[in-house]
Amino acid sequence: VLGNSGFGIVVHALCTEVGSSFTGYITGGGNTAPGADESNGNGQGSTCPDALEFLLTEEGGELDRRG
């Protein structure tokens, strides 16, 4: 995800005051979403929340908030 004015990868329920709860499971890795200070970066950053940074690594990971 390149060159957005917002974040590259975002879960709005975790990054805004409105709807601040998230129940779900996210897994993945090996994605490209450069930060605001990088070439062709996303204006507000690569991920929101920072807990999703694993999506940008080769080894990947998960965010489990299924309650």
Q: Could you name the key traits of this structure?
A:
67 residues, mainly beta, two-stranded parallel ribbon, two-stranded antiparallel ribbon, 1 helix
Number of strands: 4
Which spans have pLDDT < 50 for at least 5 consecutive residues? none
Query: What is the helix/strand order?
Result: EHEEE
Please state roughly what percent of the residues sit in beta strands, choosing from under 5%, 5-15%, 15-25%, 25-35%, 35-45% or over 45%.
25-35%
Structural class per helix/strand content?
mainly beta
Trace the largest sheet across and list its strands.
1-3
Helical residues, percent: under 10%
Structure annotation, total helices = 1
The largest sheet, given as strand count, sense and whether it forms a barrel, is: 2 strands, parallel
